[in-house]
Amino acid sequence: MNPKGSAERAVTLKDLAARLGIHPSTVSRVLHSDSAQARGAASAETALRVRELARELGYSPDPQATSLRTRRTRMFGVIVPRLSDLVLAIMYEGIEEAAAEAGYSTFVMNSRDDPEEERRKTEIMLARRVDGLIIGDAHLDGNLLHDLTNRGVPFVLMNRRIEGYPSATCDDALGGRLAASHLWEKGHRRVAVIAGEPYASTAVDRTAGFVDRWRELGGAISEDAIVWSRFDTVGGRDATEKILHACAPPPTALFAVNDFAAIGAIGTLRSHGLQVGRDMALVGYNDTSLASQLPIPLSSVHSPMNEIGRTAVQLLRRVLKGEHVQAVQLRPTLCVRESSALQL
Amino acid sequence: MNPKGSAERAVTLKDLAARLGIHPSTVSRVLHSDSAQARGAASAETALRVRELARELGYSPDPQATSLRTRRTRMFGVIVPRLSDLVLAIMYEGIEEAAAEAGYSTFVMNSRDDPEEERRKTEIMLARRVDGLIIGDAHLDGNLLHDLTNRGVPFVLMNRRIEGYPSATCDDALGGRLAASHLWEKGHRRVAVIAGEPYASTAVDRTAGFVDRWRELGGAISEDAIVWSRFDTVGGRDATEKILHACAPPPTALFAVNDFAAIGAIGTLRSHGLQVGRDMALVGYNDTSLASQLPIPLSSVHSPMNEIGRTAVQLLRRVLKGEHVQAVQLRPTLCVRESSALQL
DNA sequence: CTGAAAGCGCTTACAG
DNA sequence: CTGAAAGCGCTTACAG
User: Fold this and answer.
1) Distance from CA of B103 to the nearest CA of A (A)
2) pLDDT at residue A295, as a whole number
3) Residue B2 confidence class, pLDDT cut points 50, 70, 90
């Protein structure tokens, strides 16, 4: 409503046409011929007049009407476990940027990593008629993706991958290997892994990469030293507690597949009188902004999160064009900081 | 596209009508009469048949078509400084929940707290024809809100407030007062404030509340002891550095208007050989999940972030109904932890 | 109780 | 080069 209390009606094609004394379809044609000269849409002169008036009146096409006609909404749906997970929030920033650049808008919804909720949110998105879906919470044991494929819904995975589906992720196995090489070089021989949720490829791949590399280097690592856990600080606390109880002698280094789990680990270590970086080396994953800012800066495998989000958008656009799309894995790099700098 | 490569066409009202041998308008009427019996829309028998077939075929109305007709999109636009700020991410979770419950979808966009970007994102949202806006990055010195009001755009503020506009926020002045009372009772007499960005009501109100209460209690606090700063960890680091240089003798307690700034403070204190909770008391704000999980748990003013998001949705819905809406301030509570537990 | 029509704002073949 | 028409999928007065 404007100051007088009545809703401001938007300018339409018809308004423009009436003002110019031409037919709405001509206006539409001009506004669609994107190049400088209206290629066959109208005379150069008409085109100019149309464009000028459109700018003057601030014409912006009604997306609902356009969608109804074209059967495309230029909207993407994005599903993440939770946006309050910094990792997903940053990936979403990449998505938003890339989508906006390509003229798409995005819906995000939280699934709380619950398959039931994921399915419900997916249906809401499809009811909204999004052109495609970016799924950030794929479960290795789920069947949602199979169903979506059968229904012909275009989608790509992000953050987590599943064999056989297009995805934009970090090369998590490589990230795990980087952490293993680093700790080995620092002289550690007894290590443990805070492994994350076994249904997420991020957790599985990072852990597998770490263990593979560790064994390649000649190291030993028992099953007891690999503790699956939640991704958050509480998960890191609990896992560290378990590791300290189960492993005798205790490890000299920990690899946490997530920075937040690593932060939880720091807390538990402290309450056992152990200081990170001095009594126990620690490497996290993602290199979220907090890692470098902690009182004792945390070593972390840097994941190009913004880039992963942007890549997901590019992949989805290619899927929409009917291209067959492969999984893309972006390279991680290791950032060594005080938490694991000491040479044993 | 389905397995055969052709897009799955959604079921329409016309499809239902054809199958039932009745007119589409009758189907529409039935599907709109929400109560058990179709109140005047059709015979009970017809209504039943319509509903059954709709369920069977998984009919879901095309929102673009509906919007075009009703001139409402049932979409809200949400603008936040950044979703990678945990505080805004959690408020957004509240928004998403409340919006979904009311049958609304939400777009979020990041403004990076830049007025230019905020304006651009606002225009994108309006071009999408959202029914209303939730603005989470209001600047005390901006003029966007004035313009939006003149254009008759329905909106509410969230997180930050501005006199004269409807808003859902924490009672930040009260939060500041709680922190002041607590530190005073613990015996502190020299304090400093990491005050945040002066263009944000959160920063201004929390700081003013703290200072007011401190003076009420008979305390003194100089201008040098109030340092404006960014809201993030780097802001907290820099501000703490300034405080340690400017104040002689140094304070015994710090109040940071944001948990992340507080985390930055911990880092700077450590590099000066000061341990939080022992050598310097520290209180943060928001009680984000990290606060209680830090190696030295951080005292923090708890802000009901999810509830603030939900409230913003309720307010906006009332604005849409034409109601005149007041600012709502939700009560904070103080969580005392190790970082400020010591009695001087 | 139900049908028929108009129209929301656009796009897109089809004529001329 | 431009106009006229049809139609995307709905909703909503208006008849009967």
Assistant:
1) 10
2) 87
3) very low
**B252 three-class SS:** coil
d(CA A302, CA A170): 9
* Position A33 confidence tier, pLDDT thresholds 50, 70, 90: confident
A36: left (phi over 0), alpha (psi -120 to 50) or beta: alpha
Phi then psi dihedrals of residue A293, to 5 deg? -100, -5
Q: What is the DSSP letter of B243?
A: H
Task: Inform me whether the pLDDT recorded for B158 exceeds 90.
Answer: yes
Pairing between β-strand A226-228 and β-strand A191-196 as defined by DSSP bridges: parallel
- For A156-185, the pLDDT digits (tens) are 999 999 999 999 999 999 999 999 999 999
Listing from the earlier edge strand, what are the strands of the sheet with B328-330?
A328-330, A167-170, A155-158, A132-135, A75-80, A105-110, B105-110, B75-80, B132-135, B155-158, B167-170, B328-330
pLDDT of A46 strictly over 70: yes
Q: What is the pLDDT of residues B269-278, one digit of tens each?
A: 999 999 999 9
d(CA B344, CA B341): 9
Segment B277-292 shows an average pLDDT of: 96
pLDDT category, B4, cuts 50, 70, 90?
Answer: very low
Which domains does chain A show, CATH number per domain?
A: 13-61 (no CATH), 73-169+306-329 (3.40.50.2300), 172-304 (3.40.50.2300)
Say what the pLDDT of residue B34 is: 65
Q: Which residues contact B254 (CB under 8 A, 6 or more apart)?
A: B191, B192, B193, B194, B240, B243, B262, B265, B280, B281, B282, B283
Residues 4-63 of B with CB under 7 A from strand C: 21-26, 29, 40-46
C-alpha span between B143 and B147 (Å, rounded): 7
The model's pTM: 0.94
Amino acid sitting at position B202: T
> For residues B21 and B324, what is the distance between their CA atoms, to the nearest angstrom?
47
Q: Which contiguous run of DSSP H or E holds residue A117?
A: helix A115-127
Beta strands in chain A (DSSP E): 75-80, 105-110, 132-135, 155-158, 167-170, 191-196, 226-228, 253-256, 281-286, 299-302, 328-330, 333-335
Q: Mind telling me how many Å the CA of A167 is from chain B's nearest CA?
A: 18
Q: Which of A175, A172, A137, A132 minimizes the C-alpha distance to A154?
A: A132
Residue carrying the six token digits 């852990």: A207
CA distance A178 to A172: 10
Going by the DSSP 8-state scheme, the letter that residue B339 receives in this structure is G
User: Which nucleotide has the least CA–C1' distance to B10?
Assistant: D9
Q: Report CB contact under 8 Å: A90, B84.
A: yes
Give the three-state DSSP class for B219.
coil
Cα–Cα distances (Å) from B135 to B119, B138, B142, B164, B200, in that order, read 11, 6, 12, 14, 13
Separation between the CA of A70 and the C1’ of C15 (whole angstroms)? 23
To the nearest whole number, what is the mean pLDDT of chain B?
93
State the pLDDT at residue B6.
Answer: 46
| Cβ contact A196:A207 at 8 Å | yes
pLDDT band at B40 (very low <50, low <70, confident <90, very high): low
Phi, psi (rounded to 5 degrees) for A104: -110, 150
CB atoms A93 and B84 under 8 Å: yes
pLDDT of residue B169: 98
